[in-house]
Every structure is written in structure tokens, then in C-alpha cells.
Amino acid sequence: MLLSGKVAVITGCNRGIGKAITTVFAKQGANIIACARKSTVEFESYLTNLQNETGVLITPVYFDISKEDEVKLAIEEIRNLFSTIDILVNNAGIAGDTIYQMTTMETLEEKMKVNFYGPFLLTQYITKLMRKSTAASIVNITSIAADDSYKGMISYTASKAAFNAFTKTIANELGNVNIRVNAIAPGFTETDMVSNAITNKEFLTQLQSHLALKRLARPEEIANSVLFLASDLSSYITGQILRVDGGLFND
Q1: DSSP per position, the chain
Q2: pLDDT more than 70, % of the chain
Q3: What are the backbone dihedrals phi and psi of residue 81, each rounded to the nearest 5 degrees, phi first?
Q4: Which is it for the CA torsion 58, 94, 207, 200, positive or negative?
Q5: Which keywords accompany this UniProt record (predicted)?
Q6: What digits encode the pLDDT tens for the residues 18-45?
Q7: Does 99 or 140 have the greater pLDDT score?
Q8: 156 is catalytic
Q9: What is the structure's pLDDT at 60?
Q10: What is the mean pLDDT of residues 101-127?
């Protein structure tokens, strides 16, 4: 029960890595504000079942991370639920892209709004509620693409590179108020996002041949890494970007 009694805000909870993080955190005792863009019967049922299974409090909050007015309304809702937040996981994001010469400003703006601007604004507000915590932690979900610069992913990699810089900078600024800030950079993971982005099975097979572990990550493996950085096990770690990529070697 590494997170017993703590309150965590997690974005992008309705699928993939975000859903796995929500499950792992609940099983470790955290009360959760589960953020998603919209409500579905499936998502509400999942949260209810998880709450009944673990005995923690799980409250959904719905908003579009790319829209400033919705983020502000969500913050008011969160503030009314809890006066203190211990953990923030900025997981919500979108992939999919085009080669540089074909990338429009609309595409670039869309990625930046969801993957950087929105989390930037949300974090500004949430950190005000984290100052009362005795051991606060922010974990950003970025990507190995920010460093590895894959072709045809210019707006995605740019948004995640900005997120990396954001992580390191605010870690330096918030350390004096006892808020740690780190990021997880997942490699290729078994999620809908990756499946939709990589439809070429031959490319996927070739990709796995460059991984030391010869397989994609499972969402819960990424979630366990987030748990480490969110918990007191990493109490002296801040300003770090942790790659969780199964040993990716481009040899």
C-alpha cells in the first residue's frame, strides 16, 4: 500500500496506460480523481468496480485538456473535492502525425494543445493544491520519441520534447516547496494509440528485433514505473526523465 491515504489526480484514465495507472494506484491505496474527456458507460462501470474492489474513493472528472475554459472548470471541481493533492499524473495525450513537409499549423497546434499546453495549465493550478502535501509528486508521461526523433512524427516529438523541458524546469522551481517532478518516457506499448499509429505489422516485427526484451511493454509495466516515481520510494529523485523502453538499441 505505497499510496495509502494519498490523493492522486490522473488524466487520460479511460484507456491504455492511464487506465493501468488508475488500477495500480487504486490497488496501492490512493484516492483518485480520474480525469477523462467524456463519460461512457464502460468507463463509469470500470471505475465503480475498481472502487468496490479496492475500497478507495474514485471520482471521475470530465474535461477536454486542450480547452482552457474546461480545464479551469475542472480545477474548481477538483478543489471542491479535495483541499490537498499529493500526486498528479499528466498522462492524457494524442499521437498520430505526418512528415514535416506535410504538417499543417493546425496539426502542430493540436498536438501542442493536448500534449503540452493543457498539461502545463492544469499543473499550474494543481501545484497550488499540492503545497499542503508533505510529499507531493508530479509524474509526466512523455515519450522516447522526444529523444529518438522518429520520421513522420514532427509535431508529436516536438510536443513531448517541450514536455521534457517543462519537467526539468519546474522540478528545479518546485523543489523548495517539496514537490518532486519527474517523467516516464515509455517505449512502444500495447495500447490502442500504438496500434492505431503503427498499422504496418512488418515494421512492428522489425521494431521488436531492436528491443533487448524482444516485445512491447504491457501498460501495467509502465504504470508500475509511474508508481515508483509517485511514491516515497523515490523521495530523493526529481527532474529526471526515466525511459521505460525494454532496452531499445538501434544497432
Answers
A1: -TTTT-EEEESSTTSHHHHHHHHHHHHTT-EEEEEESS--HHHHHHHHHHHHHH---EEEEE--TT-HHHHHHHHHHHHHH-S---EEEE---------GGG--HHHHHHHHIIIIIHHHHHHHHHHHHHTT-SSEEEEEE--THHHH--TT-HHHHHHHHHHHHHHHHHHHHHGGGTEEEEEEEE-SBSSHHHHHH---HHHHHHHHHTBTTSSPBPHHHHHHHHHHHHSGGGTT--S-EEEESS-B---
A2: 94
A3: -85, -45
A4: positive
A5: Oxidoreductase
A6: 999 999 999 999 999 999 999 999 999 9
A7: 140
A8: yes
A9: 98
A10: 96
Active-site residue, selected from the candidate residues 46, 100, 125, 156: 156
List CB contacts of 156: < 8 A, sequence separation 6 or more.
94, 95, 96, 97, 111, 115, 143, 145
**pLDDT of res. 131:** 96
Query: How much is the pLDDT for 188?
Result: 86
Over range 111-130, report the average pLDDT.
97
Write down the domain spans for the chain: 7-244
How far apart CA 226 and CA 204 sit, in angstroms, is 25
In sequence order, what are the residues at sequence separation of 6 or more whose Cβ sits closer than 8 angstroms to the Cβ of residue 65? 11, 12, 35, 37, 71, 92, 113, 114, 118, 119, 122
Of the candidates 155, 174, 76, the one whose C-alpha atom is nearest the C-alpha of residue 117 is: 155
Instruction: Supply the CATH classification number for the domain 7-244.
Output: 3.40.50.720
Is residue 65 scored above 70 in pLDDT?
Answer: yes
Q: Give me the pLDDT at residue 234, please.
A: 98
Cell of 248: 531499445
